[in-house]
Amino acid sequence: MVLRFPSETVNEPITYTLIREHNVLINILNADISHGKEGQLLIEMAGREEDVNEAMVYLESRQVGISPVVKTILFNEAPCVHCGACVSVCFHGALEMDAQTRKLQFSPEKCVACELCIRACPLRLFELNFGVN
Asked: Which CATH number belongs to the domain containing residue 56 in this structure?
């Protein structure tokens, strides 16, 4: 999720409070925070459901904006040589070789963004995309 901090809360130990007092695990993926300005954190949050719910209430009480993030895979199809390396690791069937044309077919609606294709593609044609809901 993306947390948006108003300028008046940027200097508060909000992530520390989430971890220490609300017993949630925080993994900071990206941060853009400056003194006296609004800030943003891209985080993963994990813990017991009731602890996470309490943490969300705490964030709202501090006027921190919360936006869920949708993780998707982007495929740059044009330079693809249709080698099929990505197909062998795609267990959800989002990547398949067309039996007639022998070309790679990507079905984004089947993709669970497990990221295995990113590592499997020798041409690095797959990219992780974080979109905010």
From this structure: 3.30.70.260
Query: Would you list the DSSP string of 72-88?
Result: EEEE--TT-----TTGG
Residues 47/56, Cβ–Cβ less than 8 Å:
no
Residues 57 and 38 placed together within one structural domain of the fold: yes
- CA–CA gap between residue 93 and residue 107 (Å, rounded): 8
Distance CA 59, CA 11 (A): 14
Q: Which two tokens stand for residue 1?
A: 């999720």
Query: What would the two tokens of residue 97 be?
Result: 């070789």
pLDDT band (50, 70, 90) for residue 133: low
> What's the CA gap between 118 and 122, in Å, rounded?
9
Domain holding 58, by residue range, is 2-67
Note the pTM of the prediction, 2 decimals.
0.57
Provide φ and ψ at 109, rounded to 5°.
Answer: -65, -20
CA–CA distance, 103 with 87 (Å, rounded to integer)? 11
